[in-house]
Amino acid sequence: MSPPILVLVQDLFFRAKIEATARAGGWPVWCVHDVASLPDAVACRACLIDLESAGADALARLPGIAARVPTIAFASHGRIDLLEAARAAGCREALPRSRLAAELARVLGSLAAGGDP
Q: What is the reported pTM?
């Protein structure tokens, strides 16, 4: 089995959507709800990070994570500050949550394949 995509998300409904989409696509994911799990990203294929649930601690860790594995961050469309900070930290992409939800299968498939989202 290939390394999983590490997903940091606290919203249980969105987590269930991510897990169901990953299962349908055959892509392994490892969902965590706690920022302390982010250093484990080195053992993962990629990271998908909810910036609103992760907070400032995750933003501080993003440059190191994004330098090691492809990383996509997401937040609500109104949190332009978080999305811009994620781009500046080296994330491949920083998406509004609504866009990620609409394109979830494409994004997960691309991350699982190691390509650009």
A: 0.88
